[in-house]
Amino acid sequence: MLNIQELNKTYSNGIKALQNISLTIESGIFGLLGPNGAGKSTLMRTLATLQDPDSGLVTLDGIDIFQDPQKARGWLGYLPQDFGVYPNVSAEELLDLLAVFKGFVKPRQRREMVAHQLQLVNLYEKRKQKLGTFSGGMRQRFGIAQALLGEPKLVIVDEPMAGLDPSERIRFQNLLAEISEDRVLILSTHIVEDVASLCPQMAILNQGKIVTQGCPLQLMEQLHGKVWMKVMSPTEAGTINEEWTIITARMLQGKRYVRILSDAAPDEGFQGVEPELNDVYFSALSGKQNTLEAVEI
Ligand SMILES: Nc1ncnc2c1ncn2[C@@H]1O[C@H](COP(=O)(O)OP(=O)(O)OP(=O)(O)O)[C@@H](O)[C@H]1O
């Protein structure tokens, strides 16, 4: 179990990237959602012991990870947002080298470990291929293979789905689900659908603060009976009532789909709809937004 207590980080330019972050994370996939600049990468780098917080405590199975970062790195795997590879080296060669850096010095043990990880991420057949020839999805699967070297108890993956085509994305989601058994896997992302389909636990980070946390199904359930939708023509947009708490207003095939949050049925043709995780996300981010422009997506 990962326990994060009152983590704070303010950069030298005054930006408060993390403000009193406290989370308890069980094994399985934990989704960390937030818009650009929310502080997700700062939190991921801090948990990966690559940057120090100003204050706060993080324990993994009761052990303080900041006390001996070198040792902590032996228990954690990290796939950073900007994971670069050497283009002229094969998958097998680079993974072997990264295993050396992780402290695995026995060649035979390393060979077995490298083969095992490449099989797990379905790249064994491509092991001799140069990484520069890999597709985006293959590169990300290779990134998972390197993160899993040494069977870490904590795996951190920062925005891994960006740029993946739909089939690679599904393949990558399945891989994350497979490897998250018996370990904590934190998936940082701004893609709500990935959290909805993968994560039994989640938190939403905005401007350095946790604004919501819990189980996605329960968070959606809390909005039950409160989400209302109306399809409007673009010209009707002017009739948006200033009193409404708008969750989203999005254009789809020439129509404007407006979803609002309201305890009681609003008049003017709104229909009650099942809450989606998007509703949880945008309500949490917007607080009491009620202007169409502010939430238009
Ligand atoms: N080294 C740094 N020095 C100063 N400010 C920084 C630094 N790194 C990040 N920030 C700022 O801290 C805030 C949080 O950034 P961070 O990269 O953690 O957010 P994020 O949620 O990962 O965003 P993104 O999805 O765009 O990567 C942003 O306002 C960013 O500009």
Question: How would you describe this protein?
Answer:
With 297 residues, this protein is of the alpha/beta class. The chain has 2 domains: 212 residues, P-loop containing nucleotide triphosphate hydrolases (Rossmann fold); 75 residues, no CATH class. Helix content is 31%, strand content 28%. It has a 6-stranded mixed sheet, with helices on both faces. It has a 4-stranded antiparallel sheet with strand order 2-1-4-5, covered by helices on one side. A 4-stranded antiparallel sheet has the order 12-13-11-14. A hairpin with a 5-residue loop joins strand 1 and strand 2. Helix 3 crosses helix 4 and helix 5 runs parallel beside helix 6. It is globular. The relative contact order is 0.14. The C terminus is likely disordered. It binds adenosine-5'-triphosphate (ATP). This is ABC transporter. Belongs to the ABC transporter superfamily. One of its GO terms (molecular function) is ATP binding.
